Queue: 2 jobs
Job 1
Amino acid sequence: MTHKAGFVNIVGSPNVGKSTLMNQLLGEKLSIVTSKAQTTRHRIHGILNEDDYQIVFSDTPGVVNSAYQLHDAMMHYVETSLKDADVLLLITDVFESAMNHEATLDKIKKLKVPVLCLVNKIDLKDQAQVADRLAYWQNELPTAKVLPISALHGFNVQPILEMILEMLPESPPYFDKESLSDRPIRFFVSEIIREKIFLNLKKEIPYACQVEITDFVEEEEIIKIRAEIIVERDSQKAIVIGKGGKQMKYIGIDARKDIEQFLGKKVFLETFVKVDKDWRSSDVKLKKYGY
């Protein structure tokens, strides 16, 4: 029996549904999802294993014009994903008139690997508007396959998976067949907490936050986790904590529920807030936090 394996890398502008699509393709929630742009900061591999194939999906940060050195680090993940893809999924949606980063689109046009251009959120526009977007992207990427999808509702996800399987090269698996990702559990725990910060706080504060897991102790009946929420200003620290610690309490309760579901075990979660001034603009600090 032949075996197929390859990297299927997902790129697109912020907030077009890349993470939702990867989670649908995997049948697991690995990438955090919020309605806010630039939620994804890292390149996250999700691995789909069957007896005769292994698909390594790669969710990347949204393509952005740089405002912080953090954005430069995020765009490095996007650049890398264009270079090592066996199949590229370019995600757009019915609200995006054109890709916000022309240089990245130009690179996609020059790729030699198969490209699937997926127009997401088609349930939110009428047929004529969807047809207009499909025609636009087919004109922009004449060699790509352009398809309508609704990642949130799973529409057209299975046909996409079947197309990917046809495009994959024959290869042994790249990762252990029992693996779901190449990222450690601590990473996903920190991402769950960061997701809850995005969902509970508004404006700029979530973008100034980084989550570090400082302790992860697995006992027979419970996992004890200590997490530090890193911010850039004392004023941000006060907002994250909230009056009487209420905001931190809400974030902790929401995060603990999802962490317990993810780990399949009871969790005791402690969260603290720490100020690390201007961490998003420092190469040294970005490296410290894994960027």
Job 2
Amino acid sequence: MKTLRLLTLTTAALLITACQPKADAAKEADAAAKKPVATLNGKAITQGEFDSFVKQVSGRTSADLDAEQKKRALDSLINLRILAAQAEKDGLHKKAELAAQIELTRLNILQQALAEKYLEGKTPTEQELKAEYDAQIAQMSRNEYRARHILVPTEIAATQIIDRLKKGERFEVLAKDSLDSSRERGGDLGWFSPSSMVKPFADAVMALKKGETIAKPVQTQFGWHVIRLDDVREVQPPPFEEVKQQLNQAVLAKKFRAYSDELTKAAKIEKKI
């Protein structure tokens, strides 16, 4: 029993020792982030704040900057602090609209931090990635379409265009009066997948035969459309390995969404509108 107890204590000691460097590194990083890089009216500007500022405005780390770049970045941050302080002194942060924007920014930052914390160690497995791949492929249209359209503000105008087409006028010519920028190409939208278009438009396109023009105009939030389907081609789904990174992000997003749904279900919510 003494031998067993000794082994247990030894194992525990090893585990504590293994965790110690990580804990020490975290403490050192926290201490470094709190180190002042400047003071403004007696208030410290920390290394952490400076690092965040540099990353936000340049997408780089402060360690990547040379001395002159660091000086300019710090001057910009100090100037930002001065202006923000004056804004608060003028009471601008108390105005309802601005206060709401500040609060939304705070909420978004906290949400992102929570997502990063929750997803730590939840790297998607190969099986999860393949399941997501199969699910996306199943929902994917196997065809791409090439169509032309003429966008007008009213159903009457769209119906009149269809009548003119029936009488032999050219689609490309009538498309010059379209509200859409495709009028410069005779209404040509190029190749597209149905998912890239609003549903009423996509449904109308998929119901047409090659070379056919719709019999009745289609309404979307943009206006009324006259559509002609010019061509259809079959597309092959991208290889699994090629889209692995996107699949990884999709699986992580689903994991966090499920966690978010759990928190929402547990919350007491009373809607006033």
